[in-house]
Amino acid sequence: LEEDWTHVLQYTPIPGEKDLMQAIIDYLKKDDIHIGPDNIMITTSGQHGLDLVGRLFLDPQDAIAIDLPTFGGALAAFELEDAQYVVKAIEEDGTDVKGLEAEIKNYSDTKKKKPKFIYVVPDFQNPSGITTSLEKRLALLELAKKYEIPVVEDSPYRELRYRGEHLPSIYSLDKNQGHVIGLYTFSKILCPGIRVGFNIGPPEVVKKFAFIKGANILNTPKLNQNICRTFLQEYDLDTHFQKTRHYYSEKLNFFLEALEDNFPEDMGVKWTKPEGGLFLWITVPEEINTLDLFYMAIDEKVAFVPGEIFYPEGFKKYNSMRINFSFPTKEEIVEGVKRLSSVIQKYQSKKKT
Fold it and tell me: Which domain holds residue 188?
């Protein structure tokens, strides 16, 4: 700001600052993604990227193929366009590709039109924490080619792997053949308040994203873009990500241990065991409505996200919750899990009386 305030506080090109775009292009090469400036547009957060996808692809009552559960922010963005859904429950190793294909075929035969795209979060999915296997990533790509439906791959958490094998993105597997659109954000690798992300994809799609961006927000703040460019070009990213992974990995392991200690099998509570990311998914017995449980938990100063917001209308389930383990201290994790266990037991006791 001291050196260049007259430019830093000005409007910027709609697609984004060229220096930041080039820094991202260089950054993505380590993930075997090789693109040019025509394949990228800077967004004002990952949520903005989702909004652009919905605005571009969807007319009212158009369908999207999704996992259940899926990211609530994506549902919010797509429902602004009055979206419908073709769904299949996610499996332990990711998207049920065979099941989803059957649902897509049934929808196409019945409605005489195809879903507009397949939306997935293949790495440490929000909300479940599940990672899609390599076999299923390849199968999703084949599904996209077979039905000529693009895959929208939401990738906020790829850098946050704590154990297991690093898997290629679906975008990299496609090798720029135009079947995948990638959504990214700096919120999870730098800081959430920066509100900068980027979408990548075929040039004709990215160009249309820019038209929409010009009409709805015009440009992403240059100061924030400059911060992200400096982060990518001048920061020791390897050391940064190594520290980040170690920090979050310890918390995840601590959380999983606390769950084991406080939820005996006879309570009927189950949870995912993510290989990375920021979330895990807890499923409770069906008689428990986690929205009702939420208000009881708040009285005990424990918070979670009730699972129903990760399901679209018509497909709601009420006996699950998303837990974020990234922010609380280890002491807060232990105490929070104890209180959550106590609240669930109180809820079950009330149901029996």
Answer: 5-235
The reply to whether 212 and 116 lie within a common domain is yes
Query: Which residue's entry shows tokens 């090109």?
Result: 13
pTM of the model: 0.97
| Per-residue confidence in pLDDT tens, the chain, 353 aa | 777 877 888 999 999 999 999 999 999 999 999 999 999 999 999 999 999 999 999 999 999 999 999 999 999 999 999 999 999 999 999 999 999 999 999 999 999 999 999 999 999 999 999 999 999 999 999 999 999 999 999 999 999 999 999 999 999 999 999 999 999 999 999 999 999 999 999 999 999 999 999 999 999 999 999 999 999 999 999 999 999 999 999 999 999 999 999 999 999 999 999 999 999 999 999 999 999 999 999 999 999 999 999 999 999 999 999 999 999 999 999 999 999 999 999 999 888 76
In sequence order, the β-bridge partners of residue 181 are: 152
Distance CA 99, CA 143 (A): 11
Residue 283 β-bridge partners: 270, 320
Identify the three-state secondary structure at position 261: helix
Q: Give yes or no for a contact between 281 and 128, defined as CB atoms under 8 angstroms apart.
A: yes
Measured distance CA(54)–CA(48) in Å, rounded: 10
List beta partners, residue 324.
279
190 and 273 part of one domain: no
Cβ 182 vs Cβ 175: under 8 Å: no
CA distances from 271 to 42, 91, 266 (A): 36, 13, 14
Sheet holding 84-89, edge to edge: 40-43, 197-200, 180-185, 151-154, 117-120, 63-68, 84-89
- Which of 235, 263, 287 represents a domain boundary (last residue)? 235
- Compute the distance between CA of residue 50 and CA of residue 35 in angstroms, rounded to an integer: 20
Structure letter (DSSP) for residue 277: S
User: What's the CA angle centered on 18, arms 201 and 155, to 5 degrees?
Assistant: 35
Q: How far apart are CA 151 and CA 230, in angstroms?
A: 31
Q: How far is CA 330 from CA 46, 188, 263, in A?
A: 29, 20, 18
Q: Please state the domain count of the chain.
A: 2
The residue among 185, 151, 186 whose CA lies nearest residue 169 is: 151
